[in-house]
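Obj.: predict assembly geometry.
Materials: sequence records (below).
Method: joint structure prediction, all chains together.
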Amino acid sequence: MLSVSLRKRYGAFDLDASFMVAGPQITALFGRSGAGKSSVVRLIAGLDRPDQGRVELGGRVLFDQASGRVMPVFRRRIGLIFQDSRLLPHFSVRGNLTFGERRTPPAERFIAFDEVVDLLGLAALLERRPTSLSGGEQQRVAIGRALLSSPHLLLMDEPLASLDGARKAELLPFIARLAEQFRVPILYVSHAPEEILRIAGRMVLLQDGRVVASGTVEEVMSLPEFAHAAGSRSLITILPAEVEAHDEQRQTSQLAFQGGLITVPRLDLPLGSRVRARIAADQVILAKGPVNGLSVRNQLPARVISLSVIGGLVDVLLDIGCPLHAELTLVACQDLDLVPGLAVTALIKSAAIHGSAISLRPVQ
Amino acid sequence: MLTPLEWEALHLSLLVSITAVLGSLPPGLLIAWLLARKQFRGKLLLDGLVHLPLVLPPVAVGYLLLLFLGRHGWLGGWLYRSLGLSFVFSWKGAALASAVMAFPLLVRSVRLSFESIDRGTEAAAASLGAAPHDIFLTVTLPLALPGILAGMILAFARSLGEFGATITFAANIPDETRTLPLALYGVLQSADGDRAALRLCLLSVALALVTLVASDALARRLDRRLRG
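Observations (raw structure tokens):
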């Protein structure tokens, strides 16, 4: 487990962030560019020194301002993965992979070479030079190299940012599997909600150098702070769900969530796959009861939990078996006589629901 | 084919230049590394000092060396009295003069190559458990090798042509300090030295060509090894 409390001034920018990371789930550190994500990475890794604070990893103190302890980078046992792979150009892939392993005392190694090569599909690349590899391959080698130093934490700073869409999709499942298979806590820094939805269990939201929220991905992404940081005008609801059925003829899929079933555009995923369905609050329509003669596929029985005014609009928090945000105008709320406890029907267009495949198995 | 005088000059030139390059390599690497990576008081002064031989007349450098390291010199007197070590009138003096003259070229080239190494690659190596000296030996030095090699070639070339500082500090002594340029100067002073001078000149050209071709081949091989 990693516990972090950092303060550092960079000119006019003031970083003051405290949070924890525990395995085996991946914890995402999210923030828009300039929020201080990379500074946090550098401070945890020991590449920069905080002005104040404390960093503790698995019972070892890496930094403590109070007692003046500063552990050098090479003793921290933190596997770093950057946007660029930073492989050693004068070593083969094998040489890169074993660089950290050779510097780890045998008694402290808990990750085996063959297992890593197998998982990351590196067997065919071992004798190649880094410069002859594609971007995705380089990043896989960088991940394998970090793993083989048997780190107590993997720190990934936007590892997919320099890759194209196809390579990203190819690499994400690998990263998700690492956390489970090797039981290494992972802090995954990203400004892409889609990546976080696919692999992270928990997330920390960083804004202007401050932690403004932390919790499960579902919790944090439904907060106004997240909507703001993600540049989205309205709130977002994340529904954890499973692929229940496909309808080839109508090109739709049925997702089972805690409160029932929703229909979404056809997902290219096997039955039983876990997904997170993303619904923007301004795409939810409320009605007093079931409505006939509409194109909307999803009509869900809901109960109003609370109403709050945000910037001239009303955020209606609904219970549909799990929380759902709907965004309405004041007039609409008055016309429907919305009060907490009222039973309504939530209408959601299928096309407005975005399903992201989750690349991890349920966490017990 | 070659006259004894030519053999002697060739042999001395190679001995002096190789000694100068190898001898100045360790301090050259250290100073280049300090200048490239560290901030310290007196950095500007050190930088200036290193570059002095590049801007001073070589005879002035030779004279300064004489002042410091001559038998009655500041440091040289002590060396001579306590260790019996003397640079003056010996090939070691010629090597020292060459080394000092070539030093700025070596340091400049090595410093540039240290500066061009991505610090991120070194940071990655540190995160993998490599201590600073380990990183220097396994990452920094190998990646700087092309620049170090280029610096050595430059220094070697400068040493081969060294004249002013050598003749001032170590004098023109047959079989000790009479390198190719000094031998060439010597035969030009004699009345019938035209033919000998031409031959020595051609010998210098041949040596320079061999050096260039060899260094080019070496650089190519190094490049292949680094880039894969």
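Conclusions so far: The interface with chain A takes residues 118, 120-121, 123-132, 134, 139, 142-143, 225-228 of chain B (CB under 8 Å).
To do: check interface contacts against the pulldown list.
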